[in-house]
Specification:
The complex is a heterodimer. Chain A has 13 helices and 2 strands, in the order ααααααααααββααα. Chain A is mainly α. In chain A, strands 1-2 form a two-stranded antiparallel sheet. In chain A, a hairpin with a 4-residue loop joins β1 and β2 (258-260). In chain B, α4 packs across α6 (151-164) and α4 (92-113) packs antiparallel against α8 (190-207). The radius of gyration of chain B is 18 Å and the shape is globular. By secondary structure, chain B is mainly α. Chain B is 66% helix and 0% strand. Chain B has one domain (2-244): Ferritin, core subunit, four-helix bundle (Ferritin). The chains are: A mainly alpha, B mainly alpha. Chains A and B meet through α3, α4, α7, α12 and α13 of A and α2, α3, α5, α6 and α10 of B.
Chain lengths: 318, 250
Amino acid sequence: MELDINKLENDFQARIDAGENIEPKSWMPEKYRKTHIRQISQHGHSEIVGMLPEGNWITRAPSLRRKVGLLAKVQDEAGHGLYLYSAAETLGISRDELFHQLHTGKAKYSSIFNYPTLSWADIGAIGWLVDGAAIINQVMLTRTSYGPYARAMVRICKEESFHQRQGYEMMLTLCAGTPAQKEMAQDALNRFWWPSIMMFGPRDEESPHTEQAMKWKIKLKTNDELRQQFIDITVPQAEILGLTIPDPDLKWNEETGHYDHGPIDWDEFWQVVKGNGRCNKERLGARVKAWDDGEWVRDAAMAFAEKKEKSKEAKKAS
Amino acid sequence: MENKLYDYILSLGDNSLILGHRLSELCGHGPSLETDIALTNISLDLYGQVRNYFQYAAELAGEDASEDSIAFLRTDRQHKNVWLVEQPNEDFGHVICRQFLFDSFHMPLMKQLCESKDERISAIAKKSIKESSYHERFSSEWMKRLGAGTEVSNQKVQAALDHLYPFVNEFFQETPLDKEMKENGIGGDLPAIKEVYFKNVHALLLEAGLTIPEPDWRQTDGKLGYHSEHLGFILAELQYMQRSYPNSDW
């Protein structure tokens, strides 16, 4: 028996090494399945919780064009949540169960969404920085080994890159605007810069899952590599905007061909992960409230569908 | 005439503006992802209509008017929407019921406006009618689901209906402007819509197992600029940025 499992695991790894996709019906090690449920659902939850900080500004958007753009963007995130939950469902977990894990704190979502959106410029900064950071992760995931996840990512990436351009364009408009608008843009960058670079997760030496994840091609690059890639792309974009990145140690390193950056406040990162960020309680509370308030609606829809089904059957029988 | 046409366009656009705003408040808070996406879609459609109406109105107004100055820089008294669309999102029952009562009016109005002698209004109506027909289907289906789903859902949607029904008559309150626009072949024929409206609405409510309310009062005058207290708060949010940072591009 053990030999069989060893053989299955070896064959499985050989398929991944050969660049083949793993599909829902393929045999997979239990740990691979569980790791994927965790990662895909965490990603799905991030999309859904991520609707809240941006949703916070929909009713106050400063122009009709911006309002429509923001509404459509937040709606896209709901759509991404749907694809991702569907991808997770192929691994044998229900959507209700996924929500239960989110609502009880068992499942996590990206910590960035526990920061408040205090001004309209935050919406631009989130598009530019948060979606920008997300894309770097997600482009990598289009080549991940689990088929349904990789395919969901292809579609999500297209929309995310549109969101990122939209966010950057908002920042360009603000920075070309009045002094008050530019100040608003700088303030948003000041507050979102560090949380954005924390989005790539802990330093490599403190990321115990990385090695296994790379072996299974869930990850193709380490957290620090992805973080560096993001910083290298983003610094020149900030220069074009005429904004200052709030890191006095940030400087170009001729030798490495990368930007060096100052120390990240990992205490803050872990505090937010643990639930002590500025908006953790509000964000989760809003999701739980939407779910609880919606229970009677979901029950009604289910009961109505059952009644319709029964009356169809009765008609057939008569 | 241009001033009156301007006012008439605003009266069409304001219903979509305020209802679009109410629906947009729900984005991210729906009872399921599917309904969240659908309600946001309706909000987006309504804002699309608003932009078409207000861009046209801005052209008529000339000078510095724009879709945004019309959407964000008017006082409550200058808004021509009906009270129904201002009503808050108490629960999903209220949201669906408000939508259903609005769509049942909006759809026949759009049908009529497709034939408007004003080409721009007709073009906007022709574009909007596809969306309105989808909205009407969505809200009617949900009325049936909630009405005939469970005892709880029936009670909740009935309570919403009882609360909102006194507002519907305002759709058919013909202001002097409505009359003039109808006579010029530009605007809708409200008494004609009224007949279809109650026939369709009653049929659907009965099918959904709901009791048709018989309100002993009728709300009026939103179209004349007299609104509920809710509108002031809607405008406070809607206009916050434009009022705080005047003359800025976004």
